Amino acid sequence: MKAEDILARVRYDLPETGRIVVGLSGGADSVLLTYLLVQKYGAERLLAVHVHHGIRGAEADRDAEFVQDYCKALELHCKVIYKDIPALAAVS
């Protein structure tokens, strides 16, 4: 299925103005969602946010790097947030 076919089937309930924040994990679902939102609303309206949880080591580092590279290719603003979740969980 082509991106245009998917775009035609997706129901968007987002306002026509204002900033859209999309969670971008680097997995196939969020990558496709981000791509479709860029196609529909334009990169200038979007902010991609990736959270590096500090759990999966080098694999998570690669995810964060992929997300940054992907956003750069789409000319999309990107914010990577680093949180040490194991440390936070130990305090709780």
Describe this structure in words.
The chain has 92 residues and is of the alpha/beta class. A 3-stranded parallel beta sheet has the order 1-2-3, with helices on one face. β1, α2 and β2 (46-52) form a beta-alpha-beta unit. It is built from 4 helices and 3 strands; from the N terminus they run αβαβαβα. 50% of the residues lie in helices and 18% in strands. The chain is elongated, with a radius of gyration of 15 Å. The longest helix is centred in the C-terminal third of the chain and has 18 residues, at 57-74. It has helices at 3-9, 28-41, 57-74, 85-91; strands at residues 20-23, 46-52, 77-82. It has a domain at 35-43 and 59-80.
In terms of topology, how is this protein built?
Blueprint: H1 3-9, E1 20-23, H2 28-41, E2 46-52, H3 57-74, E3 77-82, H4 85-91
Parallel strand pairs: 1-2, 2-3
Short précis:
With 92 residues, the protein is of the alpha/beta class. The protein has four helices and three strands. It has a domain at 35-43 and 59-80.
SS-based class: alpha/beta
Large-scale geometry: elongated
Q: Strands of the largest sheet, in order across it? A: 1-2-3
Number of helices: 4
Order of helices and strands: HEHEHEH
Average of the residue pLDDT scores: 89
Count the E strands.
3
Helix content bin: 40-55%
**Main beta sheet: strand number and arrangement?**
3 strands, parallel
Beginning-to-end CA distance, first to last residue: 46 Å
Note the beta-strand portion: 15-25%
